[in-house]
Amino acid sequence: MATPHIGKRQQQQLIDELETQFELKEVTDRRGPISLCDFFRESWAVLEPCTDLTWSWHIEAVCFHIESLFLDWLKHRYDPTYVQRARNLAVNIPPWSAKSRITSVCVPAWIWTYYPGFKMIFLSAKPRVALRDSVYCRDLIKSEWYQNTFKPEWELRDDQNSKSTYWNTAGGIRSAAGFNSRITGDRADLIAWDDPHDASEVHSDAIRMGVLERWDSAIRNRVNDPKSSIRIGIMQRLHAKDLAGHVLATKEWDHLCIPQEFERPRNPTAFGWVDPRTKPGELMFPERFPEEVLQAERLALGDGYSGQHQQNPTASGGGIFKIGKWMIYTRLPLPDGCCQLMPPLRSLPTATS
How remote is the C-alpha of 185 from its chain's centroid? Predict the structure, then answer.
């Protein structure tokens, strides 16, 4: 495996920039800046005390992009002349890759250690999943590790502290809802969606188009500042015209795409990242997804494997017509007794003929 293109130097640069923004070097009674990547690693045992964390470079890649997106927002807030490298980020990554734990659980808690007034809305196709991650995030914030490590000067408000929505005393808000829930009146500095489609319904044109229309008309613009607020969409691809494909078609979203099996190099993201793999077929996370596991997934998902694992909902071998099953002839086979099926082709006459 090649070395990921996210090194200690880049992480330290991000931390140094955060220190400069908040002058945290002068604070002695709390821990200094910590990267989102380190936050995820250290907080894992708080919520999963009985499960060991198996590390992978893809975790660093997702954390690096979300951290950079927030840092750019922060720079712009304190210096309106600063041009954000990206304001919208679509992340396509296979299932079971810790995407929800990073995005919906760790990101809000981590951001509040730097900017506790930040307001966030998190959406999922399944309200139960959105509520689950909201509770995980609140448990993390209230944990002894979080309180002793970061010593926040704010608290969660008693009068606004439900499973789905909680406010802190510095003005920050974290709200969670199903994708089809009404959020009229709510606005945020960050809108994030995690798996906005139900896999069992995505092939219904009416239901899938309903998700796209709801995003365009009722959710996309629920931001505090249309010039600087940020949006994150993270999902496994399920359909060529799913929400990820829809927003990427606008050319307004940066794209972090990590297929299970490496296929080809892609252009660098807005933050300069490229996939560290170089050989076709190289696996994303062989410790968790070895070849035998992926083979079982191929058999179970069929054509769906191309979307959910390869982030290419149109299979490279064809959808309905499988190129691998075509028979290629250099000479047309003729039925017995036939010498010719069509007249020979003749050259078209030219101006001189």
Answer: 26
